[in-house]
Design goal:
By secondary structure, the protein is α+β, with helices and mostly antiparallel strands. It has 3 helices and 5 strands. β4 and β5 form a beta hairpin.
C-alpha cells in the first residue's frame, strides 16, 4: 500500500528509440515527482532504468520488439524502478564483481554496483526492479 508521500509515474519506453530519449523522459519524470537527486544519483538512476529495459527486451531488437513499462516509484527514502517483460538474461548465479564478461553479466554488474537493492519477482511476466537511495 502506498502512503501519502509516495508518488508513482509510469513511462512507456520504446527500446527501438534512442535510450537517450528514454533517459531524458525519466529525468523529467523524476523532476516532476520531486526526487531532488544529486547529479551522480540521477545519472545512476537513469543508467539503471536503461539497463532494466535492456534486460527485459534483450539485446537484439527487432520490428516486433514492443514498448516496456517502466514504473517509477518515488518513496520517502528511495526511487524504485520496475520493468516487466519476458525474461531475462540475469537469471542464474551471481557474477563476481571482478569478472563481467558479456552483456548479461555487465547488466548484473551495473545493477550490483549502482543500485542499493535490486531483484526479480516471480509473476507473469516477471518483474525486474532496482532501488536507489535518495539519502
Amino acid at each position: 500500500m502506498l502512503d501519502s508521500q509516495t508518488r508513482v509515474h509510469t513511462i512507456s519506453v520504446d527500446p527501438r528509440r534512442s535510450m537517450r530519449a528514454a533517459t531524458r523522459e525519466l529525468e523529467a519524470a523524476l523532476d516532476r515527482l520531486g526526487a531532488n537527486l544529486d547529479p551522480p544519483a540521477l545519472r545512476a538512476t537513469a543508467l539503471l532504468a536503461t539497463e532494466l529495459v535492456a534486460q527485459v527486451v534483450g539485446r537484439e531488437l527487432n520490428p516486433r520488439t514492443r514498448p516496456v513499462k517502466l514504473i517509477v516509484t518515488l518513496g520517502p527514502g528511495s526511487v524504485r524502478l520496475e520493468t516487466r517483460g519476458p525474461t531475462l538474461s540475469l537469471v542464474g548465479e551471481p557474477v563476481p564483481a571482478t569478472r563481467a564478461d558479456g552483456l548479461a553479466e555487465w547488466g548484473r554488474y551495473l545493477l550490483d554496483r549502482l543500485a542499493d537493492d535490486w531483484g526479480m519477482d516471480d509473476g507473469e511476466p516477471p518483474n525486474l526492479w532496482a532501488e536507489v537511495s535518495r539519502g
